């Protein structure tokens, strides 16, 4: 705001406060990030922290560029492939399973306890056993990823389907429509927002699953890269791998959000569209 | 031989319902009601008196645990094709346009809609003053407009019986009055047998031919009042002395039940 349009002094200061407030709302997280990185760098330099304990941001960036880009891509692809295959497998299993469970109480009562048992067993502990059982190929890594991702999807899909307004189910009954149409035309679309919350949780878990599997047995992948770098005390390089992994995870999360916005815009509350 | 229009269309004989037979407490009991063809009957009563239970039994969504409900001398044992239901909330499907929401009963029942159905949906929307909104999504409409769409949806299959479960209770007072008159217009143009559940006494008197007053749970019939106010009714009706008399009579039942017990 220029002085001319806002001659009143108090009004001007109010506008200024508002503008600062808005600016903070928009950029607070970016600002925090920058301050955090700068502080980190300063602490490392001033405190002369050894690089194998806490590498400075600059050394991490350097380490990132020391590794050839094609090698990064190779590792990225290995992790991404397993994560996405596991995620896809998980979708293929959990959504039909949730639908079946909602439709049949007997099935739901039979399977639900088993699902809870699987979910309660730490996948990290089971991973080595799966590798022993199924070998060190992609299949076992995909299975580990699938195990870690499917539960949130089953629960969110089933919850969404069960939260369908009772009136719509009555509408369906009053029309004496076949039950599969109640499922397809009412319950499943109603579950879409829930399914997408489940997908958002699952996609980040998929990366965790892939990395856990690589920790156990792999000769490629970002998880393997981090472990390998750490064991050779290339700590800046391990940090670079870690940050790269976090960025990948973030992009995948955002992609699910974009997919929802693009495919089902109605499923996002109006003020967030 | 009585004329068809004078025979009971919907008949309830000693109807009662109990949601939990183990506990044995009835939600409604001993309801006797005959509704004539194309008659507009409103049901008023305190919350939880089983008004909605009554409606669901006529719809065939609930089977009464006592007595029987019949439509045109046939006992209701399952949902009927000639019944349209309007719920308290519009319950439109948020992923369908207004027109597809109106067409939904057909799509849901038969799996397909024809070009003629689409034309009919547009006509019905135009009748409800919603022609220009047919391509919009439900959340772009106001609450009143959404409920109009809900009514239009119930009319799509051209039902003989229109069951309305507190359809306007979520709307603000002004919208509510207007949509009530719009409903009367539609009803005059396309006569239907209407069972209208409401907790608004004035709404019941304003719209209906007869008003059934129900008691607290277990709901029974306290009074069945003939509303002899001539039609067409308008906002002026509310100021007429007869309107005041009738609403006072119902109010007395609701607020001083012991007098009549």
Give the key terms.
heterodimer; A: 273 residues; mainly alpha; MetI-like fold; 10 helices; 81% helix; flat; B: 261 residues; alpha/beta; six-stranded mixed beta sheet; four-stranded antiparallel beta sheet; 35% helix; globular
Architecture blueprint of SSEs:
The complex is a heterodimer of chains A (273) and B (261).
Chain A: H1 9-46, H2 57-66, H3 69-103, H4 105-120, H5 123-134, H6 138-162, H7 166-174, H8 179-216, H9 222-231, H10 235-263
Helix pairs in contact in A: 2-10, 3-4, 3-6, 3-8, 3-9, 5-6, 5-8, 6-8, 8-9, 8-10, 9-10
Chain B: E1 8-17, E2 28-36, E3 40-44, H1 51-59, E4 66-71, E5 74-75, E6 83-86, H2 98-110, H3 115-127, H4 143-155, E7 161-165, H5 173-189, E8 193-197, H6 201-207, E9 210-214, E10 221-226, H7 241-255, H8 257-260
Parallel strand pairs in B: 3-8, 3-9, 6-7, 7-8
Antiparallel strand pairs in B: 1-2, 1-4, 4-5, 9-10
Helix pairs in contact in B: 2-3, 2-4, 6-7
Could you explain the architecture of this structure?
The complex is a heterodimer of chains A (273) and B (261). Chain A is mainly α and 273 residues long. Chain A contains ten helices and no strands. Chain A folds into two domains: 1-48, no CATH class; 60-272, MetI-like fold. In chain A, helix 3 packs across helix 9 (222-231). The longest helix of chain A is centred in the N-terminal third of the chain and has 38 residues, at 9-46. Chain A starts with 8 loop residues before the first helix and ends in a 10-residue tail after the last helix. The mean pLDDT of chain A is 91. Chain B has helices at residues 51-59, 98-110, 115-127, 143-155, 173-189, 201-207, 241-255, 257-260, and strands at residues 8-17, 28-36, 40-44, 66-71, 74-75, 83-86, 161-165, 193-197, 210-214, 221-226. In chain B, strands 6-7-8-3-9-10 form a six-stranded mixed β-sheet, with helices on both faces. Chain B has a four-stranded antiparallel β-sheet with strand order 2-1-4-5, covered by helices on one side. Chain B starts with 7 loop residues before the first strand and ends with a helix. By secondary structure, chain B is an alpha/beta fold. Chain A binds chain B through residues 165, 167-168, 170-177, 181-182, 185-186, 189, 192, 264, 266-267, 270, and chain B through 56, 59-61, 78-79, 81, 83, 85, 87-89, 91, 93-95, 104-105, 107-109, 111, 137, 139.
